[in-house]
Write a structure and sequence with these properties.
Number of helices: 6
Order of helices and strands: HHHHHH
Number of domains: 1
Largest sheet: none
Number of strands: 0
Helix content: 55-70%
Strand content: under 5%
Structural class: mainly alpha
Oligomer: single chain
């Protein structure tokens, strides 16, 4: 397999080119293949900003009761308390992850665990689900 020989040769060529050009910002051990040019960084930032802007518009025309995880779970909790048989027959516990997935994903679009030190457990959507699960466990134990 010649590809294993090709990679070290490419690295050696890039190293020589950096030494001759006097580039001092490369750190040994980091791949220059993964280094981004300023143009690529700008394009990435513009693309990221566009995605974040679009994500803010997703629920603009949705009634507040149907785009807030806590309010949605409250409606399911009311359903379970008023009509436990129908709630059970609808297998709601299996449906909730699919239902809440898009709402959670929108909230996680801007989350970067390497930059934001907010733990998932501290996020409002996580706490809402946790409270709902605890209330469900308490009602099942009764």
């Amino acid at each position: 397999d010649n590809s294993s020989e090709f990679i070290p040769k490419c690295r050696a060529c890039r190293r020589q080119a950096r030494e001759h050009s006097g580039e001092g910002d490369h750190h040994e051990g980091l791949s220059s293949d993964e280094e981004l040019t300023p143009t690529e960084v700008d394009e990435f930032q513009k693309s990221k900003d566009n995605v974040l802007e679009d994500s803010r518009k997703i629920f603009e025309d949705v009634h507040a009761d149907f785009c807030d995880i806590r309010k949605i779970l409250l409606k399911f909790q009311e359903w379970k308390e008023k009509f436990p048989d129908s709630y059970c027959d609808a297998y709601i516990s299996f449906c909730l992850p699919k239902l809440l997935n898009p709402l959670i994903r929108v909230q996680l679009i801007s989350w970067n665990p390497l930059e934001n030190f907010t733990e998932l457990e501290e996020m409002p959507w996580f706490r809402a689900i946790e409270e709902f699960s605890e209330a469900e466990n308490v009602s099942e134990s009764k």
